Automatic annotation (TrEMBL):
A cellular-component GO term for this protein: cytosol
GAF domain: residues covered: 31-160
Designated name of the protein: GAF domain-containing protein
InterPro entries documented for this protein: FRMsr_CS, GAF, GAF-like_dom_sf, Phosphatase_reg/MetRdx
Similarity remark: Belongs to the free Met sulfoxide reductase family.
Lineage: Bacteria, Bacillati, Bacillota, Bacilli, Bacillales
PANTHER family xref list: FREE METHIONINE-R-SULFOXIDE REDUCTASE (PTHR21021:SF15), GAF/PUTATIVE CYTOSKELETAL PROTEIN (PTHR21021)
GO molecular function: L-methionine-(R)-S-oxide reductase activity
Protein source organism: Compostibacillus humi
Amino acid sequence: MFETMSYSGNKEKDYELVLKQLEALISDETDTIANLANASALLYQFLDKVNWTGFYLWKDGELVLGPFQGLPACVRIGFGKGVCGTAVETRRTQLVPDVHQFPGHIACDSASQSEIVVPIIIDGEIFGVLDIDSPVKNRFDKVDQKYLEKFVEVLIPSLK
């Protein structure tokens, strides 16, 4: 069902293919954890120069570790804490070129140098975040932000 991607050299075209692959992965599945697990695996295989892709889920006023790919991670993150908690607090994507310059950054993996976190909002309520780390500074740009936000939009109907 899933094939390893071959890159076209066109970042936007490659992301469009990943969105189609996500749709295929989640189209017949209603289990939230299964869909989040496959979504994190898909991104981990697709994105180059990343060391962690996954989800934190909003539970009882804090983010709790969900399905992911990469090294073991922080289990709980408070509202407004670190990049993930800031994404929840602001309800906006956090694009961080250098995590060491981000006030209050939580270092789950000391190799991480840059990060992007997309909040997942369903019916006006925080569901969680998509969190991706890279061992390279300035790894993520506005194209990544645009398509990772679309990735979350495609994923949301399978999380209800």
